[in-house]
């Protein structure tokens, strides 16, 4: 069976790893360039084709994938005379792999449907290292027939591929997931910083906590930096974490409620961004809390 042609917009850490995986699996991939050329040039060197606009990406692709940082960025690439929607072929599928606001996803879904194409949201779990080997967790939602049609491609990218129901459900669950993850990461980071302040060893704190029901993968990600000095186990920036927790709060407000538990994590992450730590990785929040306690 002939493989679908793929268009990919957003070659950051995760997107570049996913494009590499698609090229490993011998898909024809069209990419869209941006100011940071390194990942684009690497993809082109491996056989990807560069398009001049998001519209051109859509015109040359059966499946258009976006892996971008914010809903505003996704909307900017989707809309307008040079946007994806303007170039969509009837029957094509657009997949947003980013972490976006569900309300934005639903609005774009209507606009894509008007162009006789289908929009799916499919936010991701795990890291760029998993993406390189096709081991992502993919939380897809939207039209089931369209999902079934693109699932062989998603299976090449992910180890665990979920269909979660109506459009927007994937982004909703991802925001809940990231709220919980970043709240846990911040709590663990503060715990290690508090150990410093109290004069006890971080390793002892970890040994005791991890011997009981508190043990988790997120705890281990933070420990990998706080105790072992390696932040790369969780290659997710403080700035993106702050955005996601903020989106969770916005989603809660759209549902007519106010999040209580996310306030502390959001406050800590935003303070770290204001302190110039936005490009740090989340495990390095330990340094932020330690600096606050020592100051």
Word description of this protein:
- With 295 residues, this protein is an alpha/beta fold.
- It contains 14 helices and 9 strands.
- It has helices spanning 13-24, 38-45, 54-59, 71-78, 84-87, 102-114, 128-132, 144-157, 169-198, 202-210, 217-226, 238-254, 262-277, 285-294, and strands at 6-9, 29-32, 49-51, 63-66, 93-96, 118-121, 124-125, 136-140, 158-163.
- A 6-stranded parallel β-sheet has the order 3-2-1-4-5-6, sandwiched between helices. Strands 7-8-9 form a 3-stranded mixed β-sheet.
- The longest helix has 30 residues, at 169-198.
- The mean pLDDT is 96.
Quick tags:
globular, 6-stranded parallel beta sheet
Layout of helices and strands, plus pairs?
Layout: E1 6-9, H1 13-24, E2 29-32, H2 38-45, E3 49-51, H3 54-59, E4 63-66, H4 71-78, H5 84-87, E5 93-96, H6 102-114, E6 118-121, E7 124-125, H7 128-132, E8 136-140, H8 144-157, E9 158-163, H9 169-198, H10 202-210, H11 217-226, H12 238-254, H13 262-277, H14 285-294
Parallel strand pairs: 1-2, 1-4, 2-3, 4-5, 5-6, 8-9
Antiparallel strand pairs: 7-8
- What distance lies between the first and last C-alpha atoms, to the nearest angstrom? 63 Å
Q: Uncertain segments of ≥5 residues (pLDDT<50)?
A: none
Count of DSSP-assigned helices: 14
Structural class: alpha/beta
Strand order of the largest sheet: 3-2-1-4-5-6
The proportion of residues in beta strands is: 5-15%
**How is the quaternary structure best described?**
single chain
Shape: globular
| Count of distinct strands | 9
**What pattern of helices and strands is seen along the backbone?**
EHEHEHEHHEHEEHEHEHHHHHH
Q: What does the largest sheet look like? A: 6 strands, parallel
Helix content: 40-55%
Mean pLDDT: 96
Q: What Rg, in angstroms, do the CA atoms define?
A: 20 Å
């Amino acid at each position: 069976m002939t493989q679908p042609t793929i268009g990919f917009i957003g070659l950051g850490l995760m997107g570049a790893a996913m494009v590499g995986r698609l090229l490993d699996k011998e898909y024809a991939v069209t990419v869209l360039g941006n100011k940071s050329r390194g990942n684009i040039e690497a993809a082109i060197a491996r056989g990807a084709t560069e398009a001049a606009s998001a519209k051109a990406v859509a015109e040359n692709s059966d499946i258009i994938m976006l892996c971008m940082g914010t809903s505003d960025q996704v909307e900017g690439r989707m809309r307008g005379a040079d946007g994806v929607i303007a170039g969509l072929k009837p029957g094509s599928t657009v997949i947003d792999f980013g972490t976006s606001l569900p309300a934005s996803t639903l609005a774009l879904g209507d606009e894509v449907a008007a162009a006789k194409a289908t929009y799916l949201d499919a936010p991701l779990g795990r890291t760029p290292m998993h993406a390189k080997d096709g081991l992502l967790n993919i939380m897809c939602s939207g039209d089931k027939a369209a999902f079934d049609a693109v699932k062989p491609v998603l299976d090449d990218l992910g180890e665990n591929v979920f269909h979660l129901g109506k459009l927007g459900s994937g982004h909703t669950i991802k925001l809940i997931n990231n709220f919980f993850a970043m709240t846990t990461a911040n709590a663990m980071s503060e715990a290690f910083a508090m150990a410093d302040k109290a004069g006890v060893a971080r390793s002892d704190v970890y040994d005791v906590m991890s011997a009981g029901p508190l043990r988790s993968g997120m705890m281990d990600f933070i420990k990998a930096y706080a105790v072992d000095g390696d932040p790369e186990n969780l290659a997710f920036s403080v700035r993106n974490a702050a955005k996601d927790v903020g989106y969770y709060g916005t989603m809660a407000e759209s549902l007519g409620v106010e999040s209580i538990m996310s306030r502390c994590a959001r406050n800590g992450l935003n303070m770290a961004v204001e302190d110039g730590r936005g490009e740090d990785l989340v495990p390095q929040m330990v340094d932020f809390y330690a600096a606050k306690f020592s100051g």
